[in-house]
Write a structure and sequence with these properties.
79 residues; mainly alpha; 23% helix
């Protein structure tokens, strides 16, 4: 019967990242989709059932603008 060799686990501090999570920024490539984004755009994740109703981001924006217009004036002003 063979004896199993137990490997000693390295003790890691809580703030030390494993090597596989370290990102090498020297190998990073520019985002090829960045030119498609409008300035000051915000990405929002829709649930699948909500996303199935809207065909495009323009449809979502049109609907949200109509909801904002229907809201009382005091509620939709930004501080």
């Amino acid at each position: 019967m063979k004896k199993r060799v137990q490997r000693k686990r390295q003790q890691r501090t809580a703030d030390e990242m494993r090597p596989e999570y370290r990102f090498d920024y020297a190998k990073a490539k520019p985002n090829r989709f960045a030119s498609r984004m409008k300035t000051e755009a915000v990405a929002v994740i829709l649930d699948p059932d909500v996303a199935s109703v809207f065909r495009s981001s323009d449809a979502v924006n049109t609907f949200l603008r109509s909801v904002i217009a229907a809201m009382p004036e005091a509620r939709h002003k930004r501080a």
